[in-house]
Amino acid sequence: MRPVSGTVGQAEPVSGTVGQAEPPRVRAEAAEQEPGHRRWAGAILAAGMAVALAAAMISIPREHAALPAVARYALAVALPRWGLTEPVNEIVYGTRGFDTFGETFLLLAAVISVVMITRSREARRGYFGESQAGQREQAQADPVVETGATERAARAAEHREQGGHAPGDPAEPDTPDATALGTPAPETADAMTVVVRTAIRIALPVLAVAGLYLVAWGYSPGGGFPGGAVLVGVLLLVYAGFGRRRISRIVRPALLESIELAGAGAIIMTELLGLLLRGSFSANWLPLAAPRTILSGGIAQLFSASELIEVGTGLAIAVFALIGMGHDWAPDERAGADDPGGER
Amino acid sequence: MILVNYLAAVALLCIGLYAVLTKRNMIKMVMGLSLMEAATYLFMISLAYRAGSTAPVLLSPPPGKSAGDLVHGNVADPVLQNFCLTAVVIGVAVTAVFLSVVVRIAQHYRTLDSDKVRKMRG
Q1: Which of A58, A332, B28, B71 is most deeply packed, by most CB within 10 A?
Q2: Which domain holds residue B31?
């Protein structure tokens, strides 16, 4: 039989060939069995694109060209007008501030799309474990027709992932540190091994401080985008190493989404006050501190800190909504007469 | 020889394009789109490079120069670095949208094969 590991989210239980009457194979994912789609047409189109782009690349400016005027302008105004020693930050929050504003709300729109697409049928309070609440209703609406060993294993693994105990599983301890060494297999364990957990405990404070330092200081204020990404990495490290129960008090939709929208509101206020007080959107309305101090750059520090909140919580929401996505198992109509994937 | 970087970006973009055009597994199509994104990052950062330039930071200029010299001197293009900075974050969020759509399609149709997802075909 096909070996089935305990992880959820593999392509196998849902791939098109499983469940049909074919002999069981040990490794079904060999490369030559993968269906392609008009390989030659694709190859010719991609090669043509490569030739056209390469021809264009040969004639564009290279490393000896003069800097464009917009870059010279940003370099020239960074220190006198914004008091920032780093022109990149001056561009992000000053010269191209309006663009950054738009990109922020593009990020927000993407996060909202992920939340809308991934949410389950019931009202939810947590990213994990909510599917249990509606299981009875689900059982009435969609009576389970267990189709095979693969699907049973996938459902059991998902049940375990969502916080329940599959029959026959040993009860999990409250914290991963209470687990006896070497007991669970890494595939089914809630947390990683003691070696990884110790390494994470050492690396985590360093990473968190480095992320916050990027935001507050760097060469100058303004590092909200990379700082937010680093903080999401910190959160994911804790999740990967210690399991979801350790972060469940912080990583809740109600909390993260409120903080996210507060960050978005702070960005709108920062930019709108420029319009109200200085007559142009995203103009600087705060007094300029001396360069190379933590408050230099006027609104740059405020904008950047709001951006940290927006990016950090936004990416966290997107990632955890995706990880905690429950299977909304559609009825498997293949068991009946018609094939949902076939032609109508 | 920054041209090598440009051509590498073109190659990366076309590998991603080939994956999007010819793969039927939707996860691999998303991977192709991510490759195309990565090609644009490489291209923008390469385009910002100037021969012998310093980072666009007006801090601690080399001996015998002032910050004003740095403004008019040989630095990498900060505007393109800014493009890349924001594009990375947006790219992560957009990939998350793609993946969540793929997961929903997989749950609904019980397949990742884009050829078998035909309910919407007119």
Answers
A1: B71
A2: 2-52+69-109
Distance (Å, rounded) from C-alpha A71 to C-alpha A91?
9
Task: Please determine, for residue B70, whether its predicted confidence score (pLDDT) is greater than 70.
Answer: yes
Question: B93 and A314 in contact by Cβ < 8 A?
Answer: yes
Q: What phi-psi label fits residue A209: left (phi over 0), alpha (psi between -120 and 50 degrees) or beta?
A: alpha
**Number of CB pairs < 8 Å for A and B?**
217
Q: Indicate the angle between helix axes A97-118 and B78-109, nearest 10 degrees.
A: 10
Domain count, chain B: 1
| Cα atoms in the 13 Å half-sphere on the side-chain side of A169 | 20
Pair of tokens at residue A262: 């507060």
* B90 in any annotated domain: yes
Q: What is the DSSP string of A217-256?
A: TTTSS--HHHHHHHHHHHHHHHHHHH-HHHHTTTS-HHHH
**pLDDT tens-digit profile of B20-35?**
999 989 999 999 999 9
Distance (Å) from the C-alpha of residue A41 to the closest C-alpha of chain B?
A: 8
CA of A72 vs chain B CAs: smallest distance (Å): 7
Is the CB of residue A36 less than 8 Å away from at least one CB of chain B? yes
> Does a structural domain hold residue B14?
yes
Task: List, in sequence order, every residue forming a beta bridge with B54; answer none if it has no partner.
Answer: B75
- B75 forms beta bridges with B54
Among A110, A73, A68, CA closest to A94: A73
| Domain-located, residue B84 | yes
What is the crossing angle of helices A299-323 and A194-216, to 10°? 150
* pLDDT average, residue stretch B64-72: 73
The CATH number of residue B44's host domain is 1.10.287.3510
Q: Is residue B98 domain-resident? A: yes
Q: Between the CA of residue B77 and those of A107, A234, A254, A297, what are the distances in Å? A: 25, 31, 41, 20
Q: Hunting for tokens 């001996």 — which residue is that?
A: B63
Residue B21 with chain A: CB contacts under 8 Å: 37-38, 41-42, 45-46
| pTM, 2 dp | 0.77
CA distance A17 to A9: 16
